[in-house]
Amino acid sequence: MEKFCGLDAHKDSVFMCILNENNEKYEEVFGTLTPDLERLRDVLVEHGVGYVAMESTSIYWYPIWRVLENDFDVKLVNPLFIKQVPGRKSDVKDAQWIATVLMKGLVKGSFVPPSLVQQLRLYNRKIINLNKELRRAEQGMDLILQRCNVRLSNYISDIGSKSMRKVVQSIADGNFKPEHLLGLVHVRIVRKHSSKTILDALTGQFTPGDIDMLKLTVQDITFREQQIEFCKQKLLETCHKYFGLQMELLVTIPGIKEHSAACIISEIGTDMKSFTSASALVGWAGLRPRNDQSAGKIKGRKTLHGNKYLRIMLVQCAWGASRTKGSTFMARYQRLRKRMHHNKALIANARKLLVVTWNILAKKEPYFAQAS
Questions:
Q1: DSSP category for residue 33
Q2: What is the pLDDT of residue 134?
Q3: I want to staple 349 with a disulfide (CB 3.0 to 4.6 A). Which of 99, 126, 248, 318 is the partner?
Q4: Mean pLDDT of successive 10-residue stretches along the chain, which has 372 residues
């Protein structure tokens, strides 16, 4: 007789309920320390459990998954699909309800990538978070300069540019004479706005505290750049070592380079059997427009919630593909741009990129071989 287990995971506790086809149940509460989870595994083995399901609650499911994945058929389920009916609610009843819907075959497990791909995800998502912190540090650097009445950011397109870095480094080193700083600014910027304007923008008033804050900000930016470079190197090394063929296939797609290919692999893996079709992958990524229609009126066409890290990279790749001369993505973008906002056209291209990616990884053929 098959037995099914539902787990309701929390930060400090895991509620377990085992059910069989005769509706006999066994319930117990476990801690979340490693010895507690190993005892949970032993209890499941002792009761002959074959199938386990649990909600994807924050990050609390990760340790449980690692302990149980080798011994049981474990399913990670979206909480949205197993909400209890209104009424009295408790953690024990939640675990029992999860076991019940698992036994009845009413839930489908979410995509959980293999351990190696999960490691790649750590590097990729750390890079994205570090880039956000880097932008904040650069904005803080510009705020310090604005307080000192140095207005160089008014005349450059990127506050993280080489000209800005050189100027800030010189000020942090104690040399903030406007004439010296002018020589550090790119000649194109000086020609565009005139040397007098840039010289006036570099004339400011500095206190020892301002200089110290700039020194700390420069150190902060340098540290984050080193961390980003380390994560990128690790990400690419691992991808080339284990997924070299898939990397070679993905870079044949316009707009996708080595780093982009590694980021995509880190989020969706390389085994497309996890997604029954390209449409399923598009929906999982959150690039499919929602179907919100009532009484013949369309109320919304916003994209669904999905993997935000994958979407960020795909939109960046779509922008590159839209600028690749001679590519179908460029022609598609220009065609869509005539009848919709450019952001919508980019999302449409990102969706198309993901469809192409699914086909390439599923068929193991390069992009140009498919297009011919």
A1: S
A2: 96
A3: 318
A4: 90 93 89 95 94 90 93 88 62 86 84 92 96 95 94 92 94 92 94 94 93 95 96 97 96 95 96 92 85 59 80 94 91 91 92 95 82 39
Q: Which of 49, 77, 103 is the last residue of a domain?
A: 103
Enter the tokens of residue 177. Answer: 């004479």
- Dihedral of alpha carbons 161, 163, 164, 169, sign: positive
The residue out of 103, 128, 160 marking a domain boundary is: 103
Domain co-membership, 247 together with 230: no
Domain interval for residue 32 = 3-103
Q: Give the number of domains in the chain.
A: 3
- 187 and 278 share one domain: no
N-to-C CA span, the chain: 54
At 106, list the tokens.
């009413």
Task: Write out the DSSP string of 106-157.
Answer: ---PPP---HHHHHHHHHHHHHHHHHHHHHHHHHHHHHHHHHTT--GGGS-S
* 60's tokens: 């609390």
Same domain membership, residue 248 and residue 363: yes
Ramachandran area for residue 51 (φ above 0: left; ψ -120 to 50: alpha; else beta) = beta
**The two structure tokens encoding residue 143:** 């705020």
Nearest to 268 by CA among 238, 229, 316, 313: 313
Q: Helix, strand, coil % (nearest 5) of the chain? A: 60, 10, 30
- DSSP annotation of 205 reads -
Rounded to whole angstroms, the Cα distance separating 356 from 250 reads: 9
